[in-house]
Amino acid sequence: MTEIVITGLGATTPLGGDLASTWAGMLAGRSGVSAITEDWAADLPVRIAGQIAVDPSAVIDRVKARRLDRSTQLALIAAQEAWIDAGFEWEAPEGSQVDPHRLSVSVASGIGGLHSLLNNWDAQRDKGYRRVSPFTIPMLMANAPAANVGLAVHAKAGVHAPVSACASSNEAIALAVDQLRLGRADIAVVGGTEATIHPLPLAAFSQMQAVSRRNDDPEGASRPWDRGRDGFVMGEGSAVMVIETLEHALARGAKIYGTIAGSGITADSHDIVQPDPTGEGQSGAMIKAIADAKLSPSDIKHVNAHGTSTPQGDVTEAGSIRTGLGAAADGCVVTSTKSMTGHLLGGAGALETIATVLALRDRMVPPTINLEDPEPDLGIDIAANVARPLPAGDLAGINNSFGFGGHNVAVVVTNANSTR
Amino acid sequence: MATTEEIRAGLAELVNDVAGVAVEDVQLDKSFVDDLDVDSLAMVEILVGCEEKFGVTIPDEESKNLKTVGDAVAYIEAHS
Predict the structure, then answer these.
(1) Across the interface, do A63 and B19 touch by the CB < 8 Å criterion?
(2) Where in the cell is it found (chain B) (predicted)?
(3) How far apart (Å, rounded) are the C-alpha atoms in residues A27 and A149?
């Protein structure tokens, strides 16, 4: 089967304005969660979030930014970094670097242009319909990040934006890999983005009892598998990769980080928000992904878990990892980088797939911070509080992402050694 | 009552804010589309900005007649 390699990476997250600073923060076990100091948060039960480290206004031209939702701005910043990292020039003339008809984009957002939607409604309600921006629709649509990335790189082989809540960007990766394997493109820009730190989603998640209220200890609020956890912490940011067929990458002499070896998708068909407590769908996604990668569970040395820090979700996933990997779970280091970034929702899968790739490259698994009092009998080996080394040789890892609606998407990556 | 130059200068600020055109380029003889590269959606934002700035209502059907900066300034002078 066509091998799909990773040749460019980019991110802007609560830990840093680029991938290097984000990854350094993860390995150091630094929290990117902080108090929301804006007045609008004062009356909310949740006043903490993983807020972006470098505001997009510091990077994107003001006039251009007027027409782009914050979620799209973040995606463009991450995409630009990934595209340049892959050896290309950003906003170069069409056709000067890659055949546009062989280039696709698959960049997801779980929720879409929330700020644009709500800010324009505020304007309409308060000042009348004439105050609604004529750009509102192209700013709020959930495919706006993908479409704008597609415009920037001149992608004509298809631009996609699969939506599956917090599994969205893993699904975007899986979709693009399928397209490359089917020969519908040679190279793809893939990833996800989210920017929903706004009173409405914070109130809504809070009403669901889904988010942490540890307002007096922001850095300690996201604590996957710790007995003191009380929900996830919302984060914002974007992560993007350039992936391509091995043949295409070799022909242009690209550097190779590793491979996207396979993916597995299942749906729980159990409940609109609660995961199936048996974990059948979650472990099924992992089993499918390992089979798709033509690997065995014993090849999987690392799992970047969905691990959101919710009371039920973390326990269910630990069981699913145990079921999915079987006895091989004993030799596998598990972590949740959400303990540091918060939960980037539609951006989470892409950021955590990149973290998995870098963990295999550096043979170092970033820690799950705040794991002071672990749930008993989880049956998985978690890199608690400090980074954990991985062995020499070929390595494979899994990134899990699960979304409201019962979406489960697992992505298997390998380190660059596997391609030689 | 604002002078022609005051209206032109105020309009130039709006065009700069919405479309990033340098204020000194926004002169009476310039066409919004052909000279200043202001697209139709940006034009909507600029005209709504004029309503707030100059207290004038510019109906949608009128906006297509405002092809140059001078057209817009004259309309604002006549209706504010």
Answers:
(1) yes
(2) Cytoplasm
(3) 29
pLDDT digits (tens, 9 = 90+) for A327-347: 999 999 999 999 999 999 999
Taking the C-alpha atoms of residue A107 and residue A162, their distance in angstroms, rounded to an integer, is 8
8 Å CB contact of A63 and B18:
yes
pLDDT in tens, A187-203: 999 999 999 999 999 99
Tokens at B48, concatenated: 């709504």
Minimal-distance CA residue of chain A relative to B51 = A130
pLDDT in tens, B11-61: 999 999 999 999 999 999 999 999 999 998 999 999 999 998 999 999 988
- DSSP labels for A68-103? S-HHHHHHHHHHHHHHHHTT--TTPPTTSSS-GGGE
> What is the model's pLDDT at position B80?
82
Window B:1-30, CB contacts with A under 8 Å: 18-20
| Secondary structure of residue A266 in the 3-state scheme | strand
Residue A153's Cβ-count burial label (10 Å; 0-12, 13-18, 19+) is buried
What is the least distance, in Å, from the CA of B70 to any CA of chain A? 23
Rg (chain B; Cα; Å): 11
Contacts of B18 in chain A (CB under 8 A): 63, 66
Q: What is the pLDDT of residue A417?
A: 63
Asked if B51 has any chain A CB less than 8 Å from its own CB, the reply is yes
Distance in Å, alpha carbon of B42 to nearest chain A alpha carbon: 8
CATH class of B4-79: mainly alpha
Residue A155, CB-side half-sphere exposure with 13 Å CA sphere: 29
User: Residue A412 to residues A87, A349, A373: CA-CA distances in angstroms?
Assistant: 24, 12, 30
Residue A65: how many CB atoms within 10 A of its CB? 16
| pLDDT digits 0-9 by tens, A51-109 | 999 999 999 999 999 999 999 999 999 999 999 999 999 999 999 999 999 999 999 99
